[in-house]
Amino acid sequence: MSALPSADLALVTCALTGVLTNPKQHPVPVTPEEMAAQAKEAVDAGASILHLHFRDQTPGLGHLPSWDPEVAGAIADAIRAACPGVLLNFSTGVLGPELSGPIACLRRGRPELAALNAGTLNYLKTRSGGAWAWPPMVFDNPVEKVEAFVTEMKALNILPECECFDTGIVRSIPLYQQVGLLGDAPSVSFVMGVASGMPAKPSWLPLLIDELPPRARWQVIAIGREDVWPLHRAAAERGGHLRTGLEDTFYLPDGGKAHGNGALIEALVKVAQDAGRKVASPTEARALLGIA
What we know:
The protein has helices at residues 32-45, 69-82, 100-109, 143-155, 167-178, 205-210, 229-237, 261-274, 282-289, and strands spanning 9-10, 12-15, 49-52, 87-90, 113-117, 121-123, 137-139, 159-164, 187-192, 217-222, 241-244, 278-279. By secondary structure, it is α/β, with parallel strands linked by helices.
C-alpha cells in the first residue's frame, strides 16, 4: 500500500483513560464529569475522535473496568454535551466469550466507531527481576467473537476499527474481507509497543502497510514512554492517522510526564503539522469516514 500524500487530512484520536490504570497514581479520568473535562481538553487541542473505556464508578474502585451500559451512557452523554460533533469510539475488549456487557454499552451509547480486536494474543510482560508483571493471560479474540461484534456493529451502524496486536492479525484483515466480514475500506490500527506484540519501531511500518488491502485506512497506537514519538512521526510522514492519550502513554516527547490528555494531543498535532498534514476537524473526520 503506497503512502498517502503528506498533505492529506490526519485523523487524531485521543484514548482518554484505558483499562486498569489506577487513578490514585496517574491522572486518568473516571467519572462522567472527569471524562468530559478531559475530552474537551483533547478536542480543543485537535482531537476529532475519542476512544473510551469505562471504569467502575464506586468510590475507590475507579481502577477497575465497567461494562455497565448506564455508566457508558452517562459518560457518552457528558462528552457529547461538552464536545458537540465529536466522534466516539467505544472499546469492546473483553476476555472470554461473554459479550453481553460490551454489546449493551454499544446499544446504549451508540458510538460512531468501536474497537474490533481482530485476533488473539498471549498478553505478557515481565519485570526487571525476571518475574511476570501479571499472570500470563490470553487476550482471546477467535473468529466467532469477531463475527459477533461485527454483526452487532453493522446492526447499529457503527464503524469497526480493527485493532491488530501482531503481524498475523494484520494479515487476517484481507481474509475477513474475503468472507464478507469487512468492507473494501477497513479501518486498521497497528497496536505497537505491547511486550508480546509488535514493537514500537518505525522500521516495522513499511512492512505492515504492505500487508494491508489497497483501500484500508490505518493508524498507529503506540504504547510506551517517550520512545513512541519517533513512531508517531513516521506514521504521520507515511500518511497514517494518529492516536495518543493517557491509555497509551504518560510521557511527552521531551520525556516529561503529561498531566492530562490535552498536552499529549497538542504534541501529536504538532507532529502531524511538522509532517505537512492537516488535522481533521470532527466535521472533516465524519466526511472522511463516511459517517453522517
